[in-house]
Write a structure and sequence with these properties.
Elements (H helix, E strand, L loop, with lengths): L2 H12 L6 H22 L8 H22 L3 H28 L1
Length: 104
């Protein structure tokens, strides 16, 4: 568990412990919905928004995700690094091809 997840863990335990996995999943989905609302505002689709609120909502999503990761003993940074490597291998040429197509 990285230092950021340890901070989340201490806070969650101070507040009484982790929720059940499905309660944490519901919290994550709720936070993603709030992120979507704020993104729509920042992009001018649904009113106006501020980058600071967008940053807050991204933080809330990461916090909720950290709770799930902590519950299952998954290090978020390790998981992210594995995903980056996966995308590099699987999709490395995808963006290059689309960039080349747009230059034609």
């Amino acid at each position: 568990m990285n230092e950021h997840q340890e901070k989340v863990d201490r806070l969650v335990r101070e507040f009484g412990g982790y929720w059940s996995p499905f309660e944490m999943l519901a919290a994550l989905v709720e936070e993603v919905g709030e992120l979507a609302d704020e993104l729509l505002k920042v992009e001018g689709v649904k009113g106006t928004g501020e980058k600071e609120r967008l940053e807050e909502e991204i933080g809330d999503v990461v916090f909720a995700l950290a709770c799930i990761a902590n519950y299952y003993g998954v290090d978020l940074l390790t998981a992210l690094e594995k995903s980056v490597k996966k995308y590099l291998v699987r999709d490395g040429n995808r963006w290059k091809e689309s960039d080349e197509d747009s230059e034609k």
